[in-house]
Task: structure prediction
Amino acid sequence: MDALDGVPRSVLGYPVKTRTQIVATFLVPVIFELMLYIVLTTADILITVEHFRNGAPTWAWFTLTLIWLPAVVCFCSIVSTPERWPERIGFDERTGRFLFNQVAILVFFPLAALYRFSRRIFWSVEALFHDKGSYGRAQAVAKITETSPCELYHFLQAFLQAAPQMMLQLYILLRDGTFRNYDTVTVQVISVVCSFLTMATIITGYQRFESQKIVGRCYPWSTPEQATQRRKLLLRSTSTAVSALATPSIAPEADPIVPNIMRNFYSRYGSEGERESTANERVAVPAAEQSPRKTLNVGAFNFDRQQSKAHQDPYVNFTDDDKLQEFSGPPDTVDRGGSKARPSGRSVSFKLRDTVEELQAMDHYLRSAEDVRGYATDDSDDEYLKPDGFDAVPKRPAPPTPEAAAGMFHRVSVFRHMLLFNAEAFIKEKVPRLPEGMFDHTNPKEGSRKVPTQGTGDQTDGDAISLPSRRQTIVGLEQDDMVGKAVLFLGWVMFLLMRMLALSTFYVFFPLYFWMLVANHYLLMIACIVYEVRLHEKLERYFFYLFLAYMYVFSLLEFKIRFVHVRWWYVGYIALVLAENVASLVLWYNLGAFESWWFYFLHHTIVASGSLSVLCFLFYYAFLRPKDRVLFVNED
Result:
């Protein structure tokens, strides 16, 4: 299994290198999340201090509570999970160490989050220094993707700290219409902006999590044992399309038709050894009939560049006919220069002796037709090489036209019965209350008979076809590439800006109507979730669905439940939120009493951010949405 399995391998359809995958998928997002976390936590702490200084302890305690709320919920979730505790029952050293670690993480949760981000950044950089497919690269990627409870804290921070903190600080900024303390206002604006970005980051990462989870993605906060067990189960029970095509569902040794096919092939054409021996017998010629072969020897001086440059051929400007006329003596009398011993056979050089020998050999070969006819025998297929009989009729008669075998009609009959059997099975499965005896193939004379299927009865002929069988598939979703995540992130930033400003300004003018709107939206989301799961989930899931409906007040993400009709969910949710925002905007803009230019600016900002968010979502869905990933379920 590839260490980067599940990581996008291309950007805008163009394949990228593995180092680019690591940088775009791990290094850059982690650095961005680390910077956001540092700025957001620091700004919230400074806001708390400023509220205490300004004589507003209520807002200060609210802000401080929201800072600690994700860590407390994460601690309760981890401690209440039996799989995270040591296996031994009772309070021993391992149990005490586990409880102490969780309490320490709760108290010093900012340091634990910073350690998690720093660890991922270190291993991301370390993976860049190793080659593709090496053990170091696989180990570094495994360290990057390992699970940790800090990921649960980071997920909860977006909805338990960033979202309510955003609403609270916007309400404090807008309730009087004017800004009183410049230092407090600056920190509040920084906190609101970082909260927007934090929520958009988490929503982008978990947008279609359930569709990605069924094809390999795991919860980042699950235990290492759970992640390993799920990965092994997925590898054992499923296979990709490439492996399914490379490895057929029926092994050759298990298919009874394959041995018959090979047996028929060997009986007609012989085995591989017999064909090689026959070919050798045809090509072999007695040594006495063969013409003497000239050996071509290559010496070290043939590769010496200095010697080849120093030698000058005196006949370099001569034509081949001039060289034949100029040289009248036998080739053996030509002095090669020097007292060096001549190597056995011919040597590769541009000397006169070699040129003349080559020309004489070529002339002898072209003028003698007996050499070509000597190699061809009556039982060979080389008559097309003879220059005299190039257009002559072949000596061998053409092979007879094969007659149509009876097995051909048998294969068509098998295929027809297979189609009938599949059609009947489909109708029985989909159509309720069929008439009695509709698919009864009983013959009163022959008795009951079965529709023949593949591998039954008399299908022992090697010419019978082997039809593919049905395989159950799992259709999931690949992860977004870098460009897709960027566009989706921008769309959710604009969407959250529209949503938060609309709700905050509506609460400033009409608090009662605000709570009515939020309560109705919350109840509607609970009804949609219950209808989607069809009451087939466990009881403990319903408590989480209450929190999931709270998340759907601000955004929509496929988490813990898989949407059956994804388009209806997203189109309906965006249309509902736009209708709520437009209704609230019309109410407070026309009926609210305000004189500050700030509310006019908010009005235009809400309209512009809503339009940009819709455009980003449409562009992402049309061009940048990830492809489906299909896995085949193994039948064993």
Summary: The first helix runs from residue 18 to 53.
